[in-house]
Design brief:
Protein name: Cadherin repeat domain-containing protein
Number of domains: 5
GO biological process, one term: homophilic cell adhesion via plasma membrane adhesion molecules
Mean pLDDT: 76
Low-confidence stretches: 1-40, 103-161, 465-494, 496-503, 523-550
Radius of gyration: 60 Å
Oligomer: single chain
Keywords: Membrane, Signal, Transmembrane, Transmembrane helix
GO molecular function, one term: calcium ion binding
Pfam families: Cadherin
Distance between the termini: 170 Å
Length: 550
């Protein structure tokens, strides 16, 4: 007769017997040649350490519930039933990590085998197992059941018959994985009917996982962190139930996924892009966390790494030369410097690509005029201030200080600096009473000032020989005489000796100049207005000619 599958049993048999007699009959069928084992070679379920209960499933597998909540499922070839006792083969014990040991008496769960033929030949008996949850003893010992007519077949009131067998899950119930990875567990199951299986998960921590319903591959939704477990009791052991479904029957298994510690690579917490102003060398500060607290060593690579240095211990990154926004040196020429920073904890490494963006800063104009210069006396022009602005801004000029500021003027647009009055070397007007004049010039680009502290040195110049300032003709000079070839009134403001060279001979009726001095004609009784053309020569200096009227 075809077995009937059910979740609980009600036993009706032609032989009225005790439960132990029933198990003995069942053992006649289960302990066949394929399953027969010597009791001395196997371990009774009662004697497995940590076993709390067991069930024989509809597919003939043995399900053992352990005290730690795990479930062990053994296929039919790994256990057998003999004389009312269930035994696990030594191979199954080793394969599933089961250990012999004293255990409390176990409860036999539901034997969901349906209608089973046990024994053989003349000793054969038919036992009907149906879905009736009643376990009333009258049903087992009374004579009002359908088998009372002595027929060896069940009346069929146990439900429809089925030959489908449930899937068998063979993957381990405890699985360990390292932190920081997504792969968690692979469900392995088979179906004796070769049905297509689909997989699902449930249980305490199932929300933290995804499962491929076709392959049974289970992955973490977020890679687990040993230092920060997310399972329900935060002990790093994630409990789920995996279920295999063949379309008719399902089988489930509780699985514990244990997350193990692994050396964590350094974790970057500093920004991947930073902006800095031009004209400074400090570029970037690397910041990392290492869960194990290992010492970190830093290094550089990347397109623009040659323009930088890094402190291998602190992670401080600097330009080898301060960057100039107006003259970028990065590989792209766009003021975006790209480097890769690597952190090594001695076991693991991690890297971060970093972009350092150099921004423009308004720079003051650069003044190239010297801070000290010489100018000759007797002129107002001094210098035109020379300045350049990196941004090309329009410049303005002003006088903002200096002891002699009041003696100067400057063109605000061109920067031309002048004396208000031409300086006289012989009569210096500086605040210090010397021929060095102090003035401060400020150049402004609209935002920033540049300052030049300037010293103007007035130099002496040779001046031309001429009439005294108080006379423009000889007639206005009283008692003008020549003594020893020198005028009594020195016409040279430098007080240098003057030679008088005769240019005109003595006329018969007039006056002239010769080597001895002024000569008069013998016939001249008096001198009237006359013109003498003299050359007055300054000693060791250039010649100057003047007309003297007398």
């Amino acid at each position: 007769m075809t077995p009937q599958i059910g979740n609980s049993m009600k036993i009706r048999q032609h032989m009225r017997s005790s439960a132990s007699a029933l198990l003995g009959l069942i053992s006649l069928g289960l302990a066949s040649e394929a399953h027969a084992q010597s009791g001395a070679e196997a371990v009774a379920v009662d004697d497995i350490q940590g076993a709390e209960a067991f069930d024989i499933l509809a597919n003939g597998s043995l399900q053992i519930t352990m005290s730690n909540g795990f479930t062990v499922i053994l296929p039919p070839d790994q256990f057998y039933v003999s004389k009312g006792q269930t035994y696990v083969t030594p191979a199954a014990m080793a394969l599933n990590g089961l250990v012999p040991g004293a255990s409390a008496p176990l409860s036999l769960g539901t034997i969901a085998l349906g209608t089973v033929a046990v024994g053989g030949g003349a000793a054969a008996a038919i036992i009907a197992l149906d879905n009736d949850k009643s376990s009333d003893g009258g049903d087992e010992s009374g004579g009002d059941d359908n088998a009372s007519d002595g027929d060896d077949t069940d009346s069929g009131d146990g439900g429809s018959n089925s030959s489908n067998r449930a899937p068998v899950i063979s993957s381990e119930t405890t699985h360990s994985v390292f932190e920081n990875q997504f792969e968690a567990y692979q469900v392995e199951a088979s179906d004796l009917d070769n049905d297509t299986l689909t997989y699902s998960i449930s249980g305490t921590d199932s929300d933290l996982f995804d499962i491929d319903s076709e392959s049974g591959a289970i992955t973490f939704k977020t890679s687990p962190d040993y230092e920060a477990p997310l399972d329900s009791n935060e002990d790093g052991i994630y409990i789920i139930n995996v279920t295999a479904d063949d379309g008719t029957e399902t089988v489930s298994q509780t699985v514990a996924i244990v997350v193990k510690n692994a050396n964590d690579a350094p974790n970057f917490t500093s920004d991947a892009a930073v902006s800095i102003e031009e004209n400074q060398t400090l570029a970037y500060q690397t910041i990392v966390d290492d869960f194990e607290g290992d010492d970190i060593t830093f290094s550089l690579s990347g397109d623009d790494a040659a323009l930088f240095t890094i402190n291998s211990e602190t992670g401080e990154v600097r330009f080898t030369e301060a960057p100039d926004f107006e003259d970028p040196q990065d590989d792209s020429g766009a003021n975006d410097y790209n480097i890769t920073v690597t952190a090594d904890d001695g076991t693991s490494m991690s890297s971060q690509d970093v972009t350092i963006i150099v921004t423009d800063v308004n720079e003051a104009a650069a003044i190239t005029t010297a801070t000290s210069l010489d100018v000759p006396e007797n002129q107002t022009s001094v210098v035109t201030i020379d300045a350049e602005d990196p941004e090309g801004d329009v410049l303005s000029y002003s006088l903002t200080g200096g002891a002699d500021q009041a003696l100067f003027a400057i063109d605000s647009s061109t920067g031309e600096l002048t004396f208000l009055t031409a300086p006289d070397y012989e009569s210096p007007a500086s605040n210090a009473g010397t021929n060095s004049y102090e003035v401060q010039v400020t150049v402004n680009d609209g935002i920033q000032d540049s300052v030049l502290d300037l010293t103007v040195n007035v130099t002496d110049e040779t001046e031309a020989v001429g009439l005294p300032p108080e006379a423009d003709s000889l007639a206005s000079v009283s008692a003008f005489t020549l003594l020893n070839d020198m005028p009594s009134v020195d016409l040279d403001v430098f007080d240098n000796p003057v030679d008088i060279v005769p240019l005109m001979p003595v006329e018969a009726d007039g006056m002239g100049v010769d080597e001895s001095g002024v000569a008069f004609a013998d016939t001249v009784a008096s001198v009237t207005a006359d013109v003498l053309d003299l050359t007055m020569q300054q000693m060791a200096e250039s010649d100057h000619s003047d007309m003297i009227t007398t």
